[in-house]
Amino acid sequence: KQQTSSSGQYLILGIPYSQFIRLDNTLIFAHKIKNEVSFNYRLQIGGGLPYGNTKTSLPYDYSFFAGGTNDNRGWRSRALGPGTYKYYLDSNRTSTQIGDIRIGGSFEFRFPLSELVKGAVFSDIGNTWSIFFDPNRPGSQFSKNWYHELGVGFGAGLRFDFDFFVIRVDLGIPIKAPSLPKGEQWIFQKKDVFTSEIQNYYGSSWEERTPFPYTPVLHFGIGYPF
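Predicted structure:
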């Protein structure tokens, strides 16, 4: 008889194993204007389906995340999503901001500033979602309204091209944060409900515990983002 854990998972050598299907696709193309001036585009679509011994979501190491140097540069790595989940009311948000589905796109206009230094202006859009309803992360589940839940970032960067490798510096800022209350998600909208929520949750330490969601983020990387 096969062993099972206290949670009902089957075991191999006393260790529970995972079962899931996962697909991840990236489409990249560029439109050259002249010399080193170009428009560059990327589309990312990925998803996973847990089944059998994995009942709720993909294993952490195989989950999708949004934000970071090579993703949506308006956010730090793993700081966007999933869905409209209110991460700012979760003190364990680093470990919970992952998902089973990812949809994202990027646009980047690249141009030379000198022989060594290249410039770029970019915009990133995307988010992650859970495939099943998660009572611990309300708003995270993928739905027919997914396109209303995309985070939008904008920014500019420098690339130091040494031929054999590229050092990249990008400064991104969120323009639309889907986790904020409706009517307050765009950077130019008032944040009355958001402020009230974090004040009620964190009390007098709310300003220390929850950074302003539209703070610019500086990213460092090796190579181009796509």
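Summary: The beta strands are 11-12, 15-16, 20-34, 37-50, 101-112, 117-129, 151-161, 166-176, 217-222.
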